[in-house]
Amino acid sequence: MNIIISNSSGKPIYQQIVAQIKQLIMTDVLKEGDALPSMRTLAKELRISVITTKRAYEELEKEGFIETITGKGSFVAGKDKELIREERYRQIEALLEKACETARMNGMTLEELLDIMTLLYKEE
């Protein structure tokens, strides 16, 4: 599993880990039942605290992306199609929110923004 941590990112390290593991699960790089590295192993590989990896795994488990079995480890959970769809919608909403904010800051009208989005969406 290739996770890249950016110290210059505004996101906390545990959130970077969560986002990257979610992406690996949603794109089927990690499949249902696949084992994740132990918290200690991941912490060692990333040169971060075990507490940080523990927080990331807890967040992933809380959101239903992984299951942890005491004594065995953490595994990719069975995919709930609705959960995956909701996560994708959240990602799209976050990107669109940034686009809207930038458009407003630059005096662009909603119609102009919609025209650009329509053109981009219809591109092949």
UniProtKB/TrEMBL annotation:
SMART domains: HTH_GNTR. Keywords: DNA-binding, Transcription, Transcription regulation. This is GntR family transcriptional regulator. PROSITE patterns: HTH_GNTR. The keyword Transferase does not apply. Gene3D superfamilies: Winged helix-like DNA-binding domain superfamily/Winged helix DNA-binding domain. Residues 11-79 form the HTH gntR-type domain. Signal peptide: none annotated. The keyword Transcription regulation applies. It holds the Pfam family GntR. GO terms for molecular function: DNA binding; DNA-binding transcription factor activity.
